[in-house]
Amino acid sequence: MDQTTEAPLTRARARAMHAARHALRVPPVPRDFRKDIEGMRALAVLGVMLWHAGVPLLPGGFIGVDVFFVVSGFLMTSLLLEEARSRGRIDLARFYARRARRLLPAALTALAGTTVLVLAFLPRARWSEVGGDLTASALYVVNWRMAWRSVDYLDLERAPSPLQHYWSLAVEEQFYVLWPVLLLLILLYAAGRARVFTVLAWTLTLGLLLGSLAVSWWWTQQEPSAYFVTPTRVHELMLGGLVALAAPAWPRLPRLLAALAGWVGLAMVLASLVVITQDTAFPGLWALLPTVGTALVLVAGPAAGPWGPVAVLRAAVLQWVGRLSYSLYLWHWPFIAVAAELAQVGRGGPSTLPVGWGLLAVAVSVVPAWLSFRYVEDPVRRHARVLADRMSPAAVTWRTLRLGLNCTLAGALLGVVVMAAAPPSDTEQTARWRTPAAVDEQRGPVGADTLVPGTTDPDTASPTASPPPTGEGDPQEMGTAAGEGVDAAVQLGEPLPAVQIPEQVGTLAVPLGQVPDDTPVMEPEGCFVALTGTEVGVCEGGDPEGGLTVALVGDSHAGMWMTALDAIGRERGWRVVAMTKSSCPPGRDLVVERSGQAGEYQQCSEWQEGLDEALDEEQPDVVLLSSASYGTTGAQAMARGLGNRIDRIEADGAVAALIRDVPRAPFDVPACLVENEDEVRSCAFGRTAALGRSGTGHELLRSQRPGLAVLDLTDAVCPGRLCSPVVGEVVVWRDSNHLTATYVRSLRDRFEEQLLAVMLEAQLSEAAAGSAALGTGR
């Protein structure tokens, strides 16, 4: 009698039997190469590159990233669904290995190239920050680092990080750590039941899509850094996943309907490049325009055939760009950042990167992008097929995962190396603790205490300047906004103190590396309100038991005077409070806008409304107001808003005074000094234009209210026609527009003198003057 010998149950056969039992009985997901997708990648990367280059015809070029998200969500979800259908499982290690092989070697190559560019072209003062960005990029968390620092991606007027573009890769990788796991859990629960899996997969996908869309809409209204965070972008990836879930149905669409949908989708994407601008609240609901458009192109492709958008998207040049899209995206931005540095954007040069510079940077970046694709990205991908013929699938997977881990660690090490090469600096906390007392610790006077009346240097001072006709002259030279009036110091016609611009930085009261952290101490912690805050915080200083209360109200330009006012209050027995919020002037009924956030800066408006109640509670005797420059708010509107606040203060019986904003440098002063330690004069700048860049509406308010008390420290901050970055062994500015706390402390006597004059002019009551000890000497 014949007996059939049963084959031994090997591990491979057991896996095959398990797959046969649990494989989903659903149609396969079509995964043929699609030229329309390659063409969409090309349009996406070209939009991003040309927008970064500053091409004005494409104000919404940044939506290319959103196109990438939808395409990526579609392709990755399709891959996971096909594995679940055919094998009954999702191999997480294999999935992550494929992602690592596809992305990490090329990303590491770009990180290495960016490191070279940083060390060669960027000032040393920026190395520490960029080194942190390098490490965060290699670890795929740089998007949260950007959000935490409140970086505004759509603000083209600031020197950008050369790693800023890695935020989108970080979003994708963070999402793909979780998405396969969620699908695997559904697959395990379904245990081969296709209907259960389908229902749960659709429910999860729709839930994530709608939930993320709601978060995106809400968060975008609150803060521009919502642009970077993963929760506001998940809906774009899930839209691609939704297309993948229904992929078996798309080929059955009528050809005419599919073609129409595809062309409408392509038109939506192209329209997004034009109608969306940096002032659009993005992503929010506006992101639906490019993402739904991309989804329609994906849906239409299989059924529309040559009648659909592929008719143009299959163009040879678009296919070539599409193949290089990942490398082009990685490499173009570091060259844009270098071009911005060479053009001195935000450091005294043009306000935005000139188009010519941008296009040149993009053109140059094509060379390393092609080399990276030709010798890194494509060979690594092809090498996987070679390994598959020689090794088991498991061995290939783990070998690839080790490669990915090594790439990640190497990239992080690059960031550490750049940070180690940066100029040494104490921590922010150490600098804040040291610098307020730095002036008192010197053997002789430093900072503003070294200034003397009169002038000897015709290049740095103007002892007999006569006022030019109001409103005339070259606007760029005058540096004044419409309606601002002329240079305040020139109007006064007073002799300016003499100051000799030093040849070298030399020995400083506060080391140059610590200057950016030379900020005022605000107590209690958290009392200074950040960008997203709306509640009015009250910082305390001076004598807590003082009989007279002086309130400092405004943005960070008001808060920087706390160092001097606190010292005055402690000695004279005044209670000092500060109510300040970042980037928010202390106006009343004043609408402020921020770049990258459409419409009203709502957090500022709410904070301004809360000021009424806070001032009523504190009942100050004197209120000092100040604010910075606000490019989106005109001088007329600002003067009106500040005037409204002054009216309310005076109606409550308090004395209101304006602290005239200090001259604003056209570049980051400490960064300039780091690069020019032996040529300090290279970091000097013109006083008239610097005043024109500062304190929006201040001079107009001054002219409209002749009786308004004004504290003007301009002559002690910028003595002469040229503003010296270093005065009396103290760096004057800690960035381009804030004074260092040490220099403010050296202004203590001058600040006190003008403040006392304000009180006397306001004719404070004898009782209040007595409690304030105005008659006592120092």
Walkthrough of the structure:
The chain is mainly alpha-helical and 778 residues long. It has 2 domains: 33-421, no CATH class; 508-678 and 688-717 and 734-771, 3-Layer(aba) Sandwich (Rossmann fold). Helices cover 54% and strands 5% of the residues. The chain contains 31 helices and 10 strands. Strands 1-3-2-4-5-7 form a 6-stranded mixed β-sheet, with helices on both faces. Helix 24 links the parallel strand 4 (622-626) and strand 5 (655-659). Helix 4 packs antiparallel against helix 5 and helix 5 runs antiparallel to helix 16. The termini are far apart. 51% of the residues are buried. Residues 1-5, 426-436, 454-495 and 764-778 have low confidence and may be disordered.
In short:
By secondary structure, the protein is mostly helical. It is built from 31 helices and ten strands.
User: Helix proportion of residues, in percent?
Assistant: 40-55%
Could you name the ranges where pLDDT drops below 50 across 5 or more consecutive residues? 1-5, 426-436, 454-495, 764-778
Largest sheet: 6 strands, mixed
Shape: elongated
> What's the structural domain tally?
2
Strand fraction equals: 5-15%
Number of strands: 10
Q: How many helical stretches? A: 31
